[in-house]
């Protein structure tokens, strides 16, 4: 499955809720306010590193850029993708949205 | 691939419709088919004909209608629309109003169903 | 229609009722889907489990109480399965006896498997 998370982890539990449902090969895609999750030094840095041990984490570049987060501020090994990449991920895995 | 889209949030306040729009454009550019966009819950407001934001802002209803001209089917849920006053006289095209059966149809015919 | 031909759709309900009102329209969609003879499941997790809490009375809010509707969905509207996640119930101090409808309690691992079998997942 492709887990699409939209909300800031500081605001809702969607990130943790989705982590409970991660399976092998599942992908995590952070969009909209969920991109704040990957900010280095933030409360969720370790959570992201934890997910990365078994699963891939992608972030929508347009949302990261809009929110003033530079590449250097993003937790290592999180990959940025554009909307084309978003489409490709949906092709790879069946999407489930965690609103 | 065939993608079905479900939009549940209204325009401007939430980013959902903007994300869905950019996704649809990218999917079409990559040669995929959009089987339809189903507007449910507050999502029905995205097709309100009276939408008229300041000129320097994107008009969500209009950019969606441009997609429709390119063959993307827009479906406004009749029950959710009626509840919110988005009916045949206030929606941008009365032909877009249809029932929840259309949402199920999207689930059946699409390879992927995405909730925004 | 044979089981293989049916499309497997799951409604994932993660919001509590009243504060945000996805519930009523989610139910309307479930009723419609049930009528089309597909394989429709409903899963309550996270705050969605509050939808099933018994004793709800939203009359002072001028709203309807849907907590008892789910049993009817299963019996009369051909919804194949209604699940509630065990861990979400426990985290919120709820158990089987607190539920307004008879639904299947599944743990996270089992629910994750069910989710993985679906063709379409609709989140509310």
Task: Give keywords.
heterotrimer, A: 99 residues, alpha/beta, Hypothetical Protein Ychn, Chain: A, 5-stranded parallel sheet, 5 strands, 20% strand, B: alpha/beta, 4 helices
Look at the helices and sheets of chain A and give the structural class: alpha/beta
User: What's the oligomerization state?
Assistant: heterotrimer
Q: What count of domains describes the coordinates of chain A? A: 1
Largest sheet of chain A: 5 strands, parallel
Query: What CATH first level of chain A would be assigned?
Result: Alpha Beta
- Helix fraction of chain C? 25-40%
Radius of gyration of chain A: 12 Å
Strand content of chain C: 15-25%
The second-level CATH architecture of chain A is 3-Layer(aba) Sandwich
Number of E-type strands of chain A: 5
CATH architecture of chain C: 3-Layer(aba) Sandwich
Specify the biggest β-sheet of chain C.
5 strands, parallel
Report a brief summary of the structure.
Chain B is built from four helices and five strands.
Structure notes:
The complex is a heterotrimer of chains A (99), B (116) and C (124). Chain A is α/β, with parallel strands linked by helices and 99 residues long. Chain A has a single domain (2-92), classed as DsrEFH-like (Hypothetical Protein Ychn, Chain: A), CATH 3.40.1260.10. Chain A is built from four helices and five strands. Chain A starts with a strand and ends with a strand. In chain A, 42% of the residues are buried. With 116 residues, chain B is of the alpha/beta class. Chain B contains four helices and five strands. Chain B has helices at 16-29, 60-69, 78-84, 101-109; strands at residues 2-7, 33-39, 74-77, 97-98, 112-115. Chain B has one domain (2-115): Hypothetical Protein Ychn, Chain: A (3-Layer(aba) Sandwich). Chain C has 124 residues and is α/β, with parallel strands linked by helices. Chain C has one domain (3-123): DsrEFH-like (Hypothetical Protein Ychn, Chain: A), CATH 3.40.1260.10. In chain C, 30% of the residues lie in helices and 19% in strands. Chain C has helices at residues 22-35, 69-76, 86-91, 108-116; strands at 8-13, 39-44, 81-85, 104-106, 120-123. Chain C has a five-stranded parallel β-sheet. The longest helix of chain C is centred in the first third of the chain and has 14 residues, at 22-35.
């Amino acid at each position: 499955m492709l887990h699409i998370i939209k909300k800031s982890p500081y605001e809702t539990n969607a990130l943790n809720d989705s982590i409970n449902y991660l399976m092998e090969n599942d992908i995590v895609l952070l969009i909209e306010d969920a991109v704040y999750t990957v900010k280095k030094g933030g409360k969720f840095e370790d959570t992201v590193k934890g997910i990365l041990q078994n699963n891939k984490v992608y972030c929508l570049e347009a949302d990261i850029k809009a929110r003033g987060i530079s590449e250097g501020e993003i937790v290592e090994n999180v990959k940025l993708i554009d909307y084309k990449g978003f489409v490709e991920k949906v092709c790879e895995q069946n999407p489930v949205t965690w609103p | 691939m065939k993608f079905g889209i479900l939009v549940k949030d209204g325009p401007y306040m939430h980013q959902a419709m903007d994300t869905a729009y950019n996704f649809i454009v990218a999917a079409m550019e990559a040669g995929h088919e959009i089987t339809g966009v189903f507007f449910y819950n507050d999502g029905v407001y995205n097709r309100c004909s009276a939408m008229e934001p300041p000129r320097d802002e994107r008009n969500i209803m209009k950019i969606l209608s441009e997609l429709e001209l390119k063959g993307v089917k827009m479906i406004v849920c009749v029950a959710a629309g009626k509840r919110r006053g988005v009916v045949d006289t206030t929606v941008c095209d009365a032909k877009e109003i249809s029932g929840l059966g259309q949402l199920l149809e999207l689930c059946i015919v699409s390879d992927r169903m995405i909730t925004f | 229609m044979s089981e293989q031909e049916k499309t497997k759709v799951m409604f994932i309900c993660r919001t509590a009722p009243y504060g945000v009102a996805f519930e009523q329209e989610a139910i309307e969609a479930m009723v419609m889907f049930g009528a089309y003879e597909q394989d429709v499941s409903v899963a309550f997790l996270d705050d969605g489990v509050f939808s099933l809490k018994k004793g709800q009375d939203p009359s002072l809010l001028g709203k309807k109480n849907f907590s008892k509707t789910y049993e009817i969905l299963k019996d009369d509207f051909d919804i194949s399965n209604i699940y509630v996640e065990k861990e979400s119930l426990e985290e919120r101090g709820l158990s089987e006896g607190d539920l307004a409808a008879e639904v299947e309690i599944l743990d996270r691992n089992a629910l994750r498997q069910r989710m993985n079998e679906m063709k379409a997942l609709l989140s509310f």
